[in-house]
Amino acid sequence: MRTKRRLSVFAWLAVAAVFALATALLRAATTETYYYFVFSNPVAGQETQYNKWYNEQHQLDVVAVPGFVSAQRFVINDLPLYRMAELQLPKYLVVYKIVTDDLEAVFKEVSRRLQTNETRMDPSFDRVTSIGYVYRALGPWVKGVGGEAPGARPGKKELYYHIVFTPFVEGKEDIFNEIYTTHHAPELASIPGFTGAQRMIMARPDTARVKGTKYLALFTVETSDLAAVKQGTSVRGTPNPGQDGAGTRGYTFRAFAPQVLGDVVRAERTKGTRH
Prior knowledge:
By secondary structure, this protein is an alpha+beta fold. It is built from six helices and ten strands, in the order αβαββαβββαββαββα. The protein has helices spanning about 1-30, 45-65, 105-115, 175-190, 225-230, 260-275; strands spanning about 30-40, 70-75, 90-100, 130-135, 140-145, 160-165, 195-200, 215-225, 250-255, 260. An eight-stranded antiparallel β-barrel has the order 1-3-2-9-6-8-7-4. The longest helix has 27 residues, at about 1-30. The radius of gyration is 23 Å and the shape is globular.
């Protein structure tokens, strides 16, 4: 009898161990979407060289790393969607999208290529003022209503990224997240001109000289007249007592170069090595 009991205990423990291992492996293998925001400036007097290198060499080197899905470059816009943030960031921005189940392995490869000069830096890049943050997508992408704002002047539509660093009031993180996710982000996405919204949470340690916030929100706008879209944002939405309004910082950037796709770059470089 005791032998049977021992066997059943061992069997239960074995099943529990297998289940725990399977759960751990499943959790470890979860693929997540990340956004790597790099803000930077050219060295004084070298802006033309900086942009040529960034467009034709650097962003291609970076998206060639497995795990990188895309890259797109932006320049800060003279007219922000909201009030101008007092704490300024560098003039240029590149947003890399990463999809992976091992973020640290991706960045380990980024570092390796920098050390071996496979990813080449350029003297026109101002290393001192550059700032980078890595955020993980938090919840689904919210599709915006798109279209054009009432009274928008006709013309070619341009893409804008409005990036908001969103601090919360101490002790009110839960209510902050609930209202931002269920009310604020969808309300902004419903304004004509807004094409989407994505909330994020910081995914890697923040070592930037200008500190980020635990949470960040990205809003995308496509319009021929940002000023007309800006008027639509003046409508007051749902109040959020959990948000630190004074500490919130928003920055509006305009896309000035086409999106670069990692799969395309990797395929081209692989093909090139076969000749």
